[in-house]
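Thread: quick sanity check before group meeting

JM: Hey all, I'm pulling together slides for Thursday and realized we never actually wrote out the predicted structure for the chain we discussed last week. Dropping the sequence here so it's in one place. If anyone has concerns about the input, flag it before I start.
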Amino acid sequence: MDTLFSPRDTLPVRAMLRVTDKGHRNWQRGTRAILYKAPRRFDGPPNPGMFDARYYYELNNINGYVTLSRRDSVRMNGYRPLNFFDRLLTQSRRYVSRTLKSRLSEEASALLHALLLGQKQYLPRATVRQFQQTGIVHVLAISGLHVGFVVLILYGLFSWTGLPDAYKAGLTLLALFFFAALVHFKAPVVRASVMIGLYLLARLYRRPVKPLQILGAAALLILLWRPAEILLPGFQFSFAAVWGLIFGLKKWEPLIRRMPAPSPGWRFVKRYIVRPAVASLAAVLATTPFTWYYYGVVQAGAVLINILVIPFIGLILGLGILLLIIAPFSFLPVAGLGFVVSFLVHVLLTGIGYVASWPVFQWTVGAPNLWQMPATALLIWSLFHPMERRWRLTALGLLVVLLFPYKVFTTPDLRVTVLDVGQGDACFIEFPDGRTMLVDAGDRGFGFDAGAWYIEPFLRYKGVTHINYLLVTHPHADHMGGMVYLMDHFTADTLVINELKVASALYRSVLDKARQKNIAVTHWQKGDHRKIGPVALYILHPPDAWEHVRDPHGKEINNSSIVFQLRYGKTRFLFTGDAEAPSEQIMRPYGAFLQSDWLKAGHHGSRTSSSAAFIELVRPHWAVISVGRGNKFRHPSRENIRRFARHGIQVLRTDRVGAVCFVSDGKQVRLLRWR
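JM (edit): ok, ran it. Output follows.
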């Protein structure tokens, strides 16, 4: 962006924007345009455990974003001519994309687009998820692995010509630069190219090759060029993996040498299976602290799957590059090669899909505490020194410390988190005895699922794989939209609903999925009482009459919401779903029993809920409104906000502050700040 127009002035600026055009206009490299829409700043993560767009894009010098729809006005304002090198790169990208789409199957083309051009948009979400579950999602991102394969393939081709070493190294360096430019100098490619480039320069000038020195020099050069790189996960993963590969293999080499190899077969196993396995283990171990910190998981089976998959990826990449080289020549067997590549990709994806469901490949453990990170790093350092007794004892001690069930000795708390799921509701409750409850699950529709987008990352961050209670306050899509997805990806004991029957395909799919997953379906209504450890749960609404209305639509469904209160010691939490004034009127006879420290405001803060009389009875210190930014209903109403203010109630809106978390020790309720 070079100019910013306002009603009063025109300002010259220099800024980078990410533009997403949902109107599918014809953009080309070099296009200049005037956008009649204000840029926006990236938001922080809406919930703990979610991607921090603001942090990521600011580190990458991208200052904001614009999302264009078909209705937004855009005026194409000329075209900046490209120089020869830019034209060459543009034509090369088009050639690669066109060849992959025409010569390969759809799934093979999608994978090769990711491997060769870094374009992952063609990959189905399910495929990406399977790569994540098996700990090999790194192969889908253009990185040092791909650069290494490309360099090996090209260096091999140049060696086949019989050129001297200096020429081979020089030509490989030029090809490496062109490949980096082809993928828009993506940061992982630049990092890997610097490392490999320094290695090739050492070969070119016949200098001794010292891998750890080259690694350190590459890191120093990159940080001198751009100091913010050190804060990027990609930088940390790249250098940790390569360091683990070099350092770990060096330290474990004596153990490998001690292995007996009495026959040629055993020598083959030792060289081509054991050594790659040890190298893979070293790289996985070195990146474990970062995997745990950023994703809340430990990739237990990643060593085995990497040993099998990485050579397969190398073969597919090599054949893919060969296909691109021979595709213009009709007299060569292009179709046959395309079939082979497509077949290999199909075998790879089928195998990954098969093992993705095995629990051994990924353990969800939740985000680590601050002390666990240095302890894990020290443990890995100890494991890299197996020949020294002191480090073996250190490793054993650290394992005991990390696996010790320290939570047994902590004070049990009741924890309530209202998640930001856009225009919808979702609350996660952690009871003092360790049981959990999810109250509602956001919306679903038009390719969006709150369960996948908002709730799952939070649960993985918390280390949750099993939910004891799934509670749907009422059968509206913005409250149960994510339930089906969550039942597919988490285990659960009980689905709690009321007895209101609605003609909704989503409602039926929730019930069908619960039966399919052997989740007990139970009905709660007014007067029911449950004890969940030391916490008492009281169902205050709906009475039986609300659950058998003749025309269950709109307000009737809202007023059938399950309203319940949690009591832990002296503290109380009141959950109201989408209950409106008629429901509040029915609950008024409870009188002082309704008094609560905390209120989940009814119906997203609409003017039809949280009446003055009801607020007088509840008298909360906090009111949380779960609402989506810029929603079409204009929730929450100004009248409602003023009403809370008159009663001195602190209002927290998820569209402004993201998720809000409260903790009770049975004596008082505290608001936790997580951002």
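AS: nice. Residues 264-295 form the longest helix (32 residues). Residues 372-409 form one domain.
JM: adding both to the slides.
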